[in-house]
Amino acid sequence: MDNLARRSGRVNIRVGGNTQDTAVLLDRIPGGNVLGWNTTATGFRQTRATPLIYTPDILYMMANISARVNVHWFVGVPFLLNDTATKLATVQWSQEILGDHLMGLQVGNEVDLYQRHGQYTTYGPSDYYNAFGAFVDDMEAANLPGTNLLVGPNIAYAYWTAEDVWNTGFVSKYNKDLAYLSVEKYPTHNCAALFKHHSGVDPQTIFPDFLSHTGKFSGNNLVQKFINSTQFAVANGKRLVMMETNTASCGGFPGISDAFGAALWGIDYAFQMAVNNFGFAMVHIGGQSVSYNPFTPPPSSASNGWNIGPMYYTALVAAESIGPSNITQVIDLGANGGNEYTPAYAFYENGNPVRLGIINYVTDTTGASDLQVQIAIGIGQSIQSPPSVQVKYLLADSVSQKGNFMWAGQTFGDNFTSDGRPAGDEKIVTIACDRTTNLCTIPVPAPSYALVFLTGTAPTYGNFSHAISSGMRAMPGSALILALSITLLVLGSVLG
Fold first, then answer.
1. Which of 13, 315, 333, 464 gives a 20 to 30 Å CA spacing to 139?
2. Chain center to CA of 4
3. Per-residue model confidence as pLDDT tens digits over 102-116
């Protein structure tokens, strides 16, 4: 988390998922555990997962993380519980423990799947509209603050569109209660093993659909259905966020989700969301057997043995590319004649280009598909390129490579070998520009991503040598440990 926070200023994490809707917060669990399953639960609407139980120690762990690193949280509320007091306990404890680090309360998860998954016989957008209002009423009746922290509608875009919800009057009715408008979307699924109604998908057949700027599963294609909603959100004084996404629902695909091509796909997708005015996006994390995890902890308390996946590299690269200023504008340049395999983006701050990002999706060991990108800085004004520019590269030998990717000369190594710190010396390439032609020629190997810094010196982050601030909170009388700081990220996410 600190690697990301140093590049972006902060990290946002959602603790939730499918089981959040029936998760019960208890004062204590027999045996002293902080997380478990209630296999004898009654009084719940039918769900596809055993009800989760947890204690406030989970929330204290989250607060302790925020005391050390600038992490802010979304917490999923148990929207499908029948008992109002139990339902609101999560709201009250989350606000009291997390304080200003609580970004929002997610009201419902994949609500357009409630009927398909058996929670209700029939369930449509108007039903969610009414249930959301009842939840607001319950909070107000209990004199709980924070009704302005609610996040909805959190649709999976499976059976409803966002417009189906907007057309109920949801945003105008609950505008003061909504912190963010939210959707969830995966480009495809790997759910056949879990759900009989899903057909199987051959990952090797669809891998090329991820390796193109305009392909079937490209970020450019994914965001098209939400462009109206991002505009609608802005018009109503809100931000639309992608509350859950990754390469494929139900854990992703081995050979795609854990390969270098997924990192390039994620970068392209992140920038497309920025171009089209999403507020931010949440990359989903699952259990030990999941292919798309940005990181997976070792099965024990060992410090080594972490697996750092492609989407973690995506997050690092996107954070450095967009930067921490919170004023960056991202533009899709339609580069190279709109070539689908070589997209490029410009990053502007205060009306000036400050960085350039170039993707090369092609795998070619001969060098014939390496790019030589010529850029001129100051088009539309007087063209006056600097004496040189600096470049950071994300590199691998092929889009199918697993592990040992390089970002600016550093790597988290092969699978299940990392301690969470980048290894190696940071490498930033300085490229001289031609002062006669005012052109800077940037090599972009096949495959790779190149981040070009157009002004000044590229920021350096070394290899995690600085100290993290200390400060921990604990519930009185509890034996609090931080060993579950990763487990808490997967509350209810095993089914993805």
1. 13
2. 12
3. 999 999 999 999 999
